[in-house]
């Protein structure tokens, strides 16, 4: 596949790639009337905010509860989007605290989400043409059900941001480190959640770009520093000038948010909380006096109060250290021998670490490593097997985002279509997959587990408890997905230790 | 989405320099998983099309087809079958009275039971008239989706299986054919956007075709009889079924016996479906009179058929009363399908049968009494089955079938869904593999094709953006209708000629 794709004339490859993108665009168009989360109003408000207020007001404005909490470059992106907005509906750019959901507004914002995915298209198309990758890689990325769910139903611009991320990775793979570092700086100034990848970038660029003796290396360090510094200055400079930098950072890193989001992202903390609950329950039964915290996780409310009753409290510093510790084996590998061909794996692994141990992680952050890993999914049968499972887990963990009955068949069909598509693609690409199967018996059992959790949450739970314990199905989803995520994290770690 | 790719990619002998294998080589892609992918994707498309508005949403007092279907559920749920077609205090026949045959009514009753279990107020007798809510829209959409899944999808798979046994096609082309049948934008838009249950009657017809392809003539007759009993419009296909089955019987020994057997099966199925109405003449006639609404005139709105198309020059409605018009339209229709019927009686063949289905349904669409623009779905079904034989014809037909329904789509506010599903169809049709490239090359070379295509594109845009001149408020509708009509006439000629050519070139050879 890879060989034929590269052998075929570039025009044909481009046609095929554009075809894949167009099919996805048609699906996105059809999703326009679907459910929108409050993130829709958030982004709409940012359009209004950036177009009607001067820069110095951007991070001060409180005319709506949806204050700007993305870095400045994203605000500039919002400003860009606001320019043609009045063609669709002048109301789009009006500052108002009530949500605006006129048909024109919905159409326009949905279209911008669909069109901004072009960055993902460009980045993946580059990945395809600069290295010997198969067209199916493009299918895996551009038809990712998680992106459809988060961007085109729930509403965000992850496709656009992940596209910039992939672009940077593509540059690193080609050995264009300066461009890679520059693009990554742009990304960081657009969405700071990508900060988890920064340790990798730092070590990699230091060792791969700034090499060749002290002076040469130092010189390159200066060049890179200037490139990155220029981006930082361009985005944060104005706020530094207005003396608002503290205000900006307090918006970007809001304190007082809990360890976990209302819906627990499927990471290591799920086990920690459950263990705490279990121990508290056992101790109470044994007659110990256990203080139950005021803000209970199962109530869905998470404040800054201490939520654990038995186990030690977790602070942001602890999570920070854990993230760095879990990354360190990979960072050491990078330090010893930085190779461009492993960049995607390494980055994906660092993002996975941030996801597994981070503070207040959103379930959507799993996109940051699932999408890049698609780029290496066709490398070997093992990769394909891992990606098959990971992408299902990642997408399934997003299901609670679309909780309305109207979107139920959509999320299910998106995932199932993609799963079967992967099956077809992988098993025709890797002939042995037919013999050994794409799914082993353990992962098969695990997938059955996911199906049972879904069946339980949809049918048996309402039947058994009616409206009581509404968080139990969500906890089950987090729990089963967390198992898959831990597996993926370990698998990536072992792979990196063995093969890179 | 993927499906068409795999189907078209896996060419058995990939030419080294083309992209014909994008993205999967044929030999090793698992057929069942590929079929499952195509079906799942087609379902997904249906579900997301159904996010859009339905016909008559929020437009009292008459609403639209959605309200009609909901009303039938209400009637069939609460009244006894003998009252379904009879005017009474509970059943005002002037307000969306039931005008489909009993099987449709039974289906309404089953769906009514489902709705009654979850949302009883949406189908309550009398009080639910014009009932609209988000939840009831969802529930109603689910009934269509489930009907589609229960009838049309299995029928399409059955057809694919039967087709692959009589024609030794490559897997990729078969997969492409399946997506062509399932992703027919007109069917998806009308059933899951506008709101109807064409998937049931068309699915039953498709199942009948598949059964006849695999020589299960009895099953085929039963299924087709059921299709007629779900929507009387399925009679458009009757000449083709009749001719083909008769021709097949004549080829056997004891042909009279076979004819009688099939006749008995058809009669028995009819009797079963009509059981509540055949005990005396009066209720039977009540139902029949509901099914044939001659009082509504020879055509309604702007349907792209002969009567409406020529009415620009000849005012049929003014020249004739209903009675002679009935006779004229009947004789025109019979004349139009006769050649195709005769061909099938003389040389019945599977391929010829598909052409005959298209020809006979076209003859009804063009010439029969009281045709709706949605009836274009009937000739479209055999055209989709012929997609491998006549790819150009199918995509061409889809364009003009969509154009002929465009005013309806605009009224329903389904333009977004229209654009996206047409886009998906075209993308699947011209998938970037070798076969797709060939299709696209053939298509755009000819100027004769391009001029009407350009006209249709212009009309689409103009209809959306411009107001018609005050003197001719329906000017654009009329132009669209005339353009579609001219193409439909051409298709009819073409496919009649093709059907006869089959018997001239290799009469009997293709018989199964």
From TrEMBL, chain A:
A GO term for molecular function: dolichyl pyrophosphate Glc1Man9GlcNAc2 alpha-1,3-glucosyltransferase activity
This protein's GO CC annotations: endoplasmic reticulum membrane
Subcellular locations according to the entry: Endoplasmic reticulum membrane
A single GO BP: protein N-linked glycosylation
TM region positions: 12-35, 107-128, 134-150, 155-172, 178-206, 218-242, 314-335, 409-426, 438-459, 471-490
Main location class: endoplasmic reticulum
Domain of life assignment: Eukaryota
Signal peptide (UniProt feature, chain positions): none
Its membrane topology: Multi-pass membrane protein
Entry similarity comment: Belongs to the ALG6/ALG8 glucosyltransferase family.
Name by which UniProt lists this protein: Alpha-1,3-glucosyltransferase
Species: Carex littledalei
The organism's taxonomic lineage, starting at the top: Eukaryota, Viridiplantae, Streptophyta, Embryophyta, Tracheophyta
From TrEMBL, chain B:
Gene Ontology CC entries for this record: endoplasmic reticulum membrane
Biological or metabolic pathway of the protein: Protein modification; protein glycosylation
Top-level EC class: transferase
Membrane association type: Multi-pass membrane protein
Known EC number: 2.4.1.-
Annotated transmembrane regions: 32-52, 138-161, 173-190, 202-228, 262-278, 327-345, 351-372, 415-431, 443-466, 472-494
Disordered: annotated segments: 1-22
Coiled-coil region list: none
Subcellular location: Endoplasmic reticulum membrane
Record-linked InterPro entries: Glyco_trans_ALG6/ALG8
UniProtKB keywords: Endoplasmic reticulum, Glycosyltransferase, Membrane, Transferase, Transmembrane, Transmembrane helix
Domain of life: Eukaryota
Pfam families from the UniProt entry: Alg6_Alg8
GO molecular function per UniProt: dolichyl pyrophosphate Man9GlcNAc2 alpha-1,3-glucosyltransferase activity
Family assignment from sequence similarity: Belongs to the ALG6/ALG8 glucosyltransferase family.
Protein name: Alpha-1,3-glucosyltransferase
Organism: Carex littledalei
């Amino acid at each position: 596949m890879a060989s034929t794709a590269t052998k075929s004339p570039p025009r044909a490859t481009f046609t095929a790639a554009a075809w894949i993108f167009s099919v996805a665009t048609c699906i996105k168009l059809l999703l326009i009337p679907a459910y929108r989360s409050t993130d829709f109003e958030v982004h709409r408000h940012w359009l209004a905010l950036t177009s009607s207020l001067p820069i110095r007001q951007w991070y001060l404005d409180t005319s709506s509860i949806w204050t700007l909490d993305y870095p400045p470059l994203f605000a500039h992106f919002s400003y860009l989007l606001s320019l043609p907005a009045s063609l669709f509906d002048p109301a789009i750019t009006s500052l108002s605290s009530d949500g605006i959901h006129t048909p024109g507004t919905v159409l326009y914002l949905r279209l911008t989400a669909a069109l901004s995915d072009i960055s993902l298209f460009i980045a993946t198309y580059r990945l395809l043409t600069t290295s010997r990758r198969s067209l199916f890689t493009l299918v895996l990325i551009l038809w990712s059900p998680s992106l459809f769910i988060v961007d085109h139903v729930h509403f965000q611009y992850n496709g656009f941001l992940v596209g910039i991320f992939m672009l940077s990775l593509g540059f690193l793979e080609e050995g264009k480190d300066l461009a890679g570092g520059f693009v990554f700086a742009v990304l960081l100034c657009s969405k700071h959640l990508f900060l988890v990848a920064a340790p990798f970038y730092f070590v990699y660029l230091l060792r791969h770009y700034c090499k060749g003796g002290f002076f040469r290396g130092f010189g390159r360090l200066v060049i890179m520093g200037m490139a990155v510094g220029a981006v930082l200055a361009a985005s944060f400079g104005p706020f530094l000038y207005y003396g608002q930098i503290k205000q900006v950072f307090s918006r970007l890193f809001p304190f007082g948010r809990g360890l976990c989001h209302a819906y627990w992202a499927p990471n290591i903390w799920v086990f920690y909380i459950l263990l705490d609950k279990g121990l508290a329950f056992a101790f109470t039964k044994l007659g110990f006096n256990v203080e139950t915290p005021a803000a209970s996780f199962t109530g869905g409310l998470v404040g800054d109060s201490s939520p654990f009753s038995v186990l030690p409290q977790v602070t942001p510093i602890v999570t920070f250290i854990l993230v760095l510790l879990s990354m360190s084996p990979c960072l050491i590998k990078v330090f010893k021998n930085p190779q461009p061909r492993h960049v995607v794996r390494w980055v994906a692994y660092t993002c996975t670490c941030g996801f597994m141990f981070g503070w207040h992680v959103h379930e959507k952050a799993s996109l940051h490593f699932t999408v890049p890993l698609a780029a290496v999914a066709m490398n070997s049968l093992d990769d394909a097997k891992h990606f098959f499972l990971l992408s299902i887990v990642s997408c399934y963990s997003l299901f609670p985002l679309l909780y309305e009955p109207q979107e139920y068949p959509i999320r299910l069909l998106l995932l199932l279509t993609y799963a079967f598509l992967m099956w077809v693609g992988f098993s025709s690409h890797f002939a042995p997959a037919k013999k050994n199967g794409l799914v082993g018996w353990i992962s098969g059992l695990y997938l059955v587990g996911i199906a049972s959790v879904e069946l339980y949450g949809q049918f048996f739970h309402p039947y058994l408890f009616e409206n009581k314990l509404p968080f139990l199905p969500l906890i089950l989803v987090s729990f089963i997905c967390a198992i898959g995520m831990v597996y993926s994290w370990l698998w990536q770690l072992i792979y990196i230790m063995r093969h890179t | 989405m993927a499906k068409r790719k795999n189907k078209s990619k896996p060419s058995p002998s990939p030419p080294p320099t083309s992209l014909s294998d994008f993205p999967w080589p044929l030999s090793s892609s698992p057929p069942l998983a590929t079929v499952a992918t195509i079906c799942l994707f087609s379902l997904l498309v249906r579900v997301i099309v159904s996010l859009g508005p339905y016909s008559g949403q929020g437009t009292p007092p008459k609403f639209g087809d959605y309200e009609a279907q909901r009303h039938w559920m209400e009637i069939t749920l609460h009244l006894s079958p003998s009252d379904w077609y009879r005017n009474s205090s509970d059943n005002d026949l002037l307000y969306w009275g039931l005008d489909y045959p009993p099987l449709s009514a039974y289906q309404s009753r089953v769906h009514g039971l489902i709705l009654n279990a979850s949302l009883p107020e949406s189908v309550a007798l009398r009080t639910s008239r014009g009932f609209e809510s988000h939840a009831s829209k969802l529930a109603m959409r689910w009934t269509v989706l489930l009907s589609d899944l229960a009838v049309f999808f299995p029928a399409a798979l059955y057809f694919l299986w039967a087709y692959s046994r009589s024609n030794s096609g490559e897997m990729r082309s078969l997969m492409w054919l399946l997506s062509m049948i399932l992703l027919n934008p007109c069917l998806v838009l009308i059933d899951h956007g506008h709101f109807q249950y064409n998937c049931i009657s068309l699915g039953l017809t498709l199942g009948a075709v598949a059964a006849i392809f695999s020589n299960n003539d009895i099953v085929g007759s039963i299924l087709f009889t059921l299709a007629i009993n779900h929507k009387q419009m399925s009679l458009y296909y009757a000449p083709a079924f009749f001719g083909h089955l008769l021709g097949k019987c004549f080829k056997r020994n004891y042909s009279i016996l076979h004819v009688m057997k099939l006749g008995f099966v058809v009669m028995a199925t009819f009797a079963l479906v009509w059981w509540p109405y055949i005990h005396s003449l009066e209720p039977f006639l009540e139902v029949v009179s509901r099914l044939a609404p001659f009082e509504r005139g020879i055509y309604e709105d702007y349907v792209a058929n002969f009567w409406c198309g020529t009415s620009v020059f000849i005012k049929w409605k003014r020249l004739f009363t209903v009675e002679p018009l009935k006779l004229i339209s009947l004789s025109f229709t019979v004349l139009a399908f006769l050649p195709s019927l005769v061909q099938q009686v003389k040389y019945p063949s599977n391929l010829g049968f598909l052409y005959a289905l298209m020809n006979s349904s076209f003859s009804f669409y063009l010439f029969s009494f009281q045709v709706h623009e949605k009836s274009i779905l009937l000739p479209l079904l055999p055209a989709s089955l012929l997609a491998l034989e006549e790819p150009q014809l199918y995509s061409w037909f889809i364009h003009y079938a969509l154009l002929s329904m465009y005013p309806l789509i605009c009224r329903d506010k389904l333009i977004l869904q229209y654009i996206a599903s047409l886009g998906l169809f075209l993308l699947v049709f011209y998938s970037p593999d070798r076969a797709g490239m060939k299709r696209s090359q053939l298509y755009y070379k000819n100027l004769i094709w391009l001029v009407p295509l350009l006209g249709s594109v212009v009309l689409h845009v103009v209809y959306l953006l411009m107001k018609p001149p005050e003197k001719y408020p329906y000017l654009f509708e009329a132009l669209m209708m005339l353009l579609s009509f001219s193409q439909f006439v051409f298709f009819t000629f073409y496919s009649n000629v093709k059907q006869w050519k089959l018997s001239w070139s290799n009469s009997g050879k293709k018989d199964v």
